[in-house]
User: What shape does this take?
Amino acid sequence: MLLGTQRVNEQGHLEVGGCDTLALAQEFGTPLYIMDEALVRESCRRFVKVFTERYSGEVEVSYAGKAFLTMAMAKLVDQEGLALDVASGGELYTALKAGFPAEKILYHGNFKSSEELELGVEVGVGRFVVDNPYELQRLAELAAARGKRQAILLRVTPGIDPHTHAKISTGQEDSKFGISVASGLALQTVKEALALPSIDFKGIHCHIGSQLLDSHTHEDAAEIMVGFIAAIREATGFVCSELDIGGGLGVRYLPSHNPPSYEEFADSVVGAVVGALKQHDLPLPRLMLEPGRALVAEAGTTLYTVGPIKTIELAERTKTFVSVDGGLSDNPRPVMYGAEYSVLVAGRAEQAKDKTVTVSGKHCETDLLFSEIGLGEVHSGDILAVQTTGAYNFGMASNYNRFRRPAVVFVQNGQADLVWERESYDDLLRQERLPQRFLEG
Ligand code: LLP
Assistant: This one.
């Protein structure tokens, strides 16, 4: 499986963005996150295009920054004309520092602290996506105190259970996110929002889950959401001008994964939204989407250096552990969600994957990254390339065992630009404070 600009060059090495991955490993060290810039840009453009071509109302695509965010990424998103979804004060701050226009930011989160709410109101973020009645009241007070009227969407739970990993399902009735439509609480909160002079209620939002490999759940969600817009009109006379369907479109981690294409996904979502709007005789709201993974996952490749290889003779088989110089701290997804990935030996990218190995990380933990995968011939010192690591890898990286988070490079047209420098040991000590009494005696 070759993704985006990946190809195998004359030496049999994996290349991304016109850069030989072995040369990148040499120049920047490993572990290394590589982002295929051309693929990210093309994905942003195509995602916007497929929706604007199909929907005759206004479309706004926000990139979900939680999937992968650096200042360079925020700039890229702005250059490609997308809006940005942020989920914390830190993501908001990063975007603002990159010069991302505040009015094109949607601010998410189920518990925004006072500091975060204040920052958002101060800088003028375009939309707060309000998660609960408590946040609504606090936001209203903060905005009122500043003489501002804050535009919001309300996050609701449509009450659907998508077929994905339980840890990334968020649209079901018992989700920690949003306000339940079925219980009537969502309607009550809408009424409260409409009565608050410092709140400009625009519409409703949902996000049902992530890595969804078919569009049925999005279709069901669209129908429930439009039905709720109709219920709001009936109860209050107010017609929502915005409908946000969230993110969730899945990607290919393995060649056997077959997510809907952007075109198929847009056909389903737009078809369901427009059909339901007609049924309820509602005008076209601004249709909003928040893809994260679908825009960046396949553009990411992680390089590791192979260290010791252990072969254990068991009664009925031989088990081979191939250790690499990263693991749980740069990619927690296998351990957290049982996520699977495609792996290549970067220097022999086309070799037969006829040997089964288990790739382990180097943490003091059984951080098996890829269990019993076909890899083929592998030696200590080889570079492994793990595909589809562009989403929720760098963003979820930690310093566990005091590991230094790896560098990130954007590659395009044979050029590699560092966008996040590998942490140094001094970076690890930057927050350290030794109280005087520890220094005495
Ligand atoms: N909008 C909202 C409100 C979200 O909560 C999310 C993801 C997205 C959009 C983007 O979803 P996407 O298009 O990327 O599926 N760490 C997990 C994924 C958590 C997703 C959280 N919310 C993983 O590694 O699979």
Remarks:
- The chain has a mean pLDDT of 96.
- Residues 216-236 form the longest helix (21 residues).
- The pocket of LLP is lined by residues 64, 66-67, 85, 108, 168, 207, 210-211, 246-249, 290-294, 333, 337, 392 (CB under 6 Å).
- The domain at 7-36+297-421 is CATH 2.40.37.10 (Lyase, Ornithine Decarboxylase; Chain A, domain 1).
